[in-house]
Write a structure and sequence with these properties.
The structure holds 2 protein chains of 2 kinds. By secondary structure, chain A is mainly α. Helices cover about 80% and strands about 0% of the residues of chain A. The N and C termini of chain A lie far apart (about 20 Å). By secondary structure, chain B is of the alpha+beta class. Chain B contains 4 helices and 16 strands. Chain B has a 5-stranded antiparallel sheet with strand order 5-1-7-8-9, with helices on one face. In chain B, strands 4-3-2-6 form a 4-stranded antiparallel sheet. Chain B is elongated. The chains are: A mainly alpha, B alpha+beta. The interface between A and B is small, with 9 and 14 residues.
């Protein structure tokens, strides 16, 4: 799921 | 040696209630400054970020940094055994594979302890990035929980529209549609009951009811909730 990946990246690249 | 005491077990019960539906297991990172927990929920679409500062405990000691992976369902079983006003002490030795929860009744006549096995969980370094949000709404937490609950009856998602004048929550589905508008409070007599909006630019965003309802499990922790919103950024 693209949205899910986007969300994970958002939190990982803090 | 790690030891953290709360004069009322209720505090940790509320914290656990706020996260246990989102996470099956989580790592509690204990350091001198307190306990941190950060984890994506089971579906990997929301982040739980929790900080319990050492000065919030009635006694706190952490000689060496310690990561305690816990199964939250098992932790909930243990916390259920405590009365709300029992004193709670969490204890673990350095490099231990168990954590102990001790509950003491107010009159000291009942003391119980429960030991739980710790788990080795994959650690991810996550966090909520510093963001300048387009709208920040502060409102009574109970009111927000009520709105999420009410609107969930009408659809699977809630649209939140925020302008300088107020914030509107909407849902629609087969049964019809629902709109709830909250105006910004004109005078702040009672801070806990006020609705305050800081707006850079208006936003309209859609969120899944399922997650909003999960987040509102944290309602008993605070009188007010803050909703920070920007386009294309998680709430």
């Amino acid at each position: 799921d693209v949205d899910q990946l986007k969300i994970e990246q958002y939190y990982k690249f803090n | 040696m790690f030891e953290a005491r709360l004069n009322a077990s209720n505090v940790l019960k509320k914290v656990l209630d706020a996260i246990k539906d989102l996470l099956n297991e989580a790592t509690f990172d204990c350091s001198d400054s307190g306990i941190q927990l950060q984890a994506m929920d089971n579906s990997h679409v929301s982040l739980v970020s929790l900080s319990l500062r050492s000065d919030g405990f009635d006694k706190y000691r952490c000689d060496r940094n310690l990561s305690m992976g816990m199964n939250l369902a098992n932790m909930a079983k243990i916390m259920k055994c405590a009365n709300n006003d029992d004193t709670l002490t969490m204890k673990a030795q350095d490099n231990a594979d168990t954590v102990t929860f001790m509950f003491e009744s107010q009159n000291q006549e009942k003391v119980s302890d429960y030991e739980m096995k710790l788990m080795n969980l994959d650690q991810e370094h996550l966090g909520i990035p510093e963001t300048d949000y387009a709208c920040v709404v502060r409102m009574p937490a109970m009111e927000f929980a009520r709105i999420c609950r009410d609107l969930s009856q009408f659809g699977e998602s809630v649209v939140i529209s925020c302008t300088k004048e107020g914030v509107k929550f909407s849902a629609s589905g087969d049964a019809g549609s629902a709109n709830i508008k909250l105006a910004q409070t004109s005078t702040i007599d009672k801070e806990d009951e006020s609705v305050i909006i800081e707006m850079q630019e208006p936003v309209t965003l859609t969120f899944a009811c399922r997650y909003l309802n999960s987040f509102t499990k944290a309602t008993p922790l605070c009188n007010q909730v803050q909703l920070s919103m920007s386009a294309d950024v998680p709430l």
